[in-house]
């Protein structure tokens, strides 16, 4: 099945909002093996919308629209579609009752233009909206399907996932399964160089790389008549990649480095702490964004000033004097210090120059030391993350934090598990 | 001038990433009065890309593409465009030297496929890439302009803003200037209710609201023949809004709450500290993302465990026993504790239930206390941020951190300045 996603809204054309709806729908369709050939965005303009809808329906079996179902005068997607399918607009009584009930619940008067939201193309399958007033709909004609969803992500997402995906999944009769191998510390080009011939040779499963901030994700996707059969196609390729990249693989379907760290800590019943300078709390922020991290992360110190490094973390004054705050020695003492202070099993630290100011010839912007301290495994790594252009503070902080998390993962792997 | 944005990338069609590039470009074009009629996304597929490019060039004066300029075999946007314009691909020596210098700088070997990035359509205007290896380009033919930009947002954005927007702005001959009033703690509907008649009445400047995570931005935009003339149209409206929303305005063109906080601290030569529980380091991460924050932020403690709240921050054991970690009393003691510990002039704190677990009838998910402690102004605010649907951990953490930053700003406003 070929699909197109057509998002309607002048606010998207003006760049007032980012189009998260397209991503949610694309992901959902990919998961059931529907090929999205095209995504597009048009404004709330009848003529252009009509052209875009007609073109999309010509090229694809299924067109999914978002937006334009609202109560205001410029929301006209439904009317345009009804015209294209040669249907009249008729009042849908159940939808009207739901809208009336909604307004009664929130205690606001219902206006005439809200009533317009209950007018639907004749013969459409109605998709009730549990999170707002505009119902969605599915129109079918000559083997083509048009699915119309509301624009607000909070209304669109549940309607799409609960009412649309199951209908389309039943039609494809095909299951697409993906597994993702997460690789850290190997550049995208290097990964591709090593896998190019495999990527070109593989048909089912396919193998595709995706790189971001020092990480490379390799997605292995198979199409089969069942999840189990797809899994049998995927697993040998995943094993092969894991063997090939060894230590650099931090997980399969791991979500993120921080999720992998929290999972590994949970498995061994270990507790991690952090002492951050240049990353300024980013490590603890990333760990604590994982639900349940409170069991394995109790304490993070952002010691941005030298005084705090000394007073709180016990970094020696001589160390700071002799080697400076951005040094291997300081990173090591920070990690050891926060581990002792917090009573954690392991600790990570960062100290470096995130820029744009503060660099020197000897210690340039992008120089970062990340440290780890545990019973069995303590080390410091020196990173040179500067790439010589201006706005890289965020990049340097992100990649420094990722390196610290990756180092933590290696230390956790080497640590003895504790009793729960 | 009519424009279309065409984003190339299978990862967009599969929903692996959200299309922030389209938003950035759309905003930029809107700011210089260029109408975006259409946005679309196609995969890395020669035939479909060709059709999309041809259609776009037929309908618009200017087509801006992103993506497909990378080093890998499936990046072929440039070649497709060259074919469409009847140009040969030729080696651009300056681009090659920049790419070689880049690899020398980061100390990684340059592969043959990186060399491909220096091949450009003959006669193209080259846009050097200050943030990566793939140069962009502008092709002009028969009054149509094709602008090709790299896909990674970090590379695309500065190239677009510095090298493309000025060229297009010169063509439109119109200057569009915007100023943004930042409002915190007033709901979007409430802001709209108060400004509706003004928004409808204003033509030049226009007034448009944009809401996100507890903040409302009001953008005032004027079109004139010069920046100064546009400013004269904008300033009275900005003053009017600032007067109307008073304390809730945290800045004009302030960038972000954290940028406003760092600026205010710098102005009064004050130092802030943070003690975070449910926000887990997000506040210190946000403050330290601002260059130069090290002068005004020395210490942030993420005290995720009660034990750390007691031991490090001096929260009394009885307080935790009697009122619990999520309480007004704990928030107050955390803020006072980290202020004493760090020697800062002011401190903020957060403690709450970010979910999805950990909630109860008495203390539901989304209950958060944010505290501030300073010489003149200490208080705790109780927030109920839960909206009753599942995935709101990130929302709760973000809005809690924003409330703490806003509270810090109020405390800074009331504080006496120090001598530099």
Helix-strand layout with pairing:
Two copies of one chain form a homodimer.
Chain A: E1 2-8, H1 10-13, H2 20-31, E2 35-42, H3 46-59, E3 62-66, H4 77-85, E4 89-91, H5 93-106, H6 112-115, E5 119-121, E6 125-127, E7 136-141, E8 144-149, H7 153-172, E9 175-184, H8 188-201, E10 206-212, E11 215-224, H9 227-245, E12 249-252, H10 257-268, E13 272-276, H11 282-288, E14 297-303, H12 306-311, H13 317-323, H14 328-342, E15 346-352, E16 367-373, E17 379-384, H15 393-414
Parallel strand pairs in A: 1-2, 1-3, 3-8, 13-14, 13-15
Antiparallel strand pairs in A: 4-5, 6-7, 7-8, 9-11, 9-12, 10-11, 15-16, 16-17
Structural notes for this entry:
Two copies of one chain form a homodimer. With 420 residues, chain A is α/β, with parallel strands linked by helices. The first copy, chain A, contains 15 helices and 17 strands. The first copy, chain A, has helices at residues 10-13, 20-31, 46-59, 77-85, 93-106, 112-115, 153-172, 188-201, 227-245, 257-268, 282-288, 306-311, 317-323, 328-342, 393-414, and strands spanning 2-8, 35-42, 62-66, 89-91, 119-121, 125-127, 136-141, 144-149, 175-184, 206-212, 215-224, 249-252, 272-276, 297-303, 346-352, 367-373, 379-384. In chain A, the strands form four sheets. A six-stranded mixed β-sheet of chain A has the order 2-1-3-8-7-6, sandwiched between helices. A five-stranded mixed β-sheet of chain A has the order 14-13-15-16-17, sandwiched between helices. A four-stranded antiparallel β-sheet of chain A has the order 10-11-9-12. In chain A, helix 2 runs parallel beside helix 7 and helix 3 (46-59) packs across helix 4 (77-85). The longest helix of chain A is centred in the C-terminal third of the chain and has 22 residues, at 393-414. The first copy, chain A, is elongated. The model of chain A has no long low-confidence stretch (mean pLDDT 91). Chains A and B meet through helix 2, strand 2, helix 8, strand 10 and helix 11 of A and helix 1, helix 2, strand 2, helix 5 and helix 11 of B.
């Amino acid at each position: 099945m070929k699909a197109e996603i057509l998002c309607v809204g002048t606010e998207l054309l003006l760049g007032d909002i980012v189009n998260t709806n397209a991503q949610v729908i694309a992901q959902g369709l990919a998961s059931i093996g529907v090929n999205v050939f095209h995504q597009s965005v048009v404004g709330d303009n009848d003529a252009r919308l009509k052209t875009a809808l007609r073109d999309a329906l010509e090229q694809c079996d299924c067109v999914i629209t978002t937006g334009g179902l609202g109560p205001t005068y410029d929301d006209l997607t439904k009317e345009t579609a009804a015209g294209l399918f040669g249907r009249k607009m008729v009042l849908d009584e159940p939808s009207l009752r739901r809208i009336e009930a909604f307004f009664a619940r929130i205690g606001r008067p219902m206006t005439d233009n809200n009533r317009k939201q209950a007018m639907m193309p004749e013969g459409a399958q109605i998709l009730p909206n549990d999170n707002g007033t505009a119902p969605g709909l599915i129109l079918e004609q000559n083997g083509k399907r048009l699915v119309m969803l509301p624009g607000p992500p909070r209304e669109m997402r549940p309607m799409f996932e609960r009412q649309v995906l199951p209908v389309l999944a039943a039609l494809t009769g095909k299951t697409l399964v993906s597994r993702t191998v997460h690789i850290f510390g190997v550049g995208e080009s290097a990964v591709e160089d090593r896998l190019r011939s495999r990527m070109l040779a593989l048909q089912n499963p396919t193998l595709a790389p995706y790189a971001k901030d020092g990480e490379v994700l390799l997605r292995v996707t198979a199409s089969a008549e069942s999840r189990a059969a797809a899994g049998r196609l995927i697993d040998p390729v995943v094993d092969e990649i894991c063997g090939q990249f060894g230590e650099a693989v931090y997980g399969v379907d791991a979500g993120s480095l921080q999720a992998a760290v929290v999972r590994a800590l949970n498995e061994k019943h270990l507790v991690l702490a952090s002492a951050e300078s240049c990353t300024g709390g980013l490590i603890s922020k990333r760990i604590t964004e994982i639900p349940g991290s409170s069991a394995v992360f109790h304490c993070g110190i952002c010691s941005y000033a030298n005084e705090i490094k000394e007073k709180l973390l016990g970094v020696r004054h001589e160390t700071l004097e002799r080697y400076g705050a951005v040094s291997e020695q300081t990173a090591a003492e920070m990690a050891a210090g926060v581990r002792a202070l917090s009573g954690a099993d392991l600790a990570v630290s960062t100290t470096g120059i995130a820029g744009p100011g503060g660099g020197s010839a000897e210690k340039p912007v992008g120089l970062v030391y990340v440290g780890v301290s545990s019973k069995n495994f303590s080390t410091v790594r020196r990173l040179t993350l500067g790439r010589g252009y201006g706005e890289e503070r965020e990049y340097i902080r992100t990649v420094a934090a990722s390196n610290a998390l990756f180092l933590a993962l290696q230390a956790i792997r080497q640590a003895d598990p504790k009793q729960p």
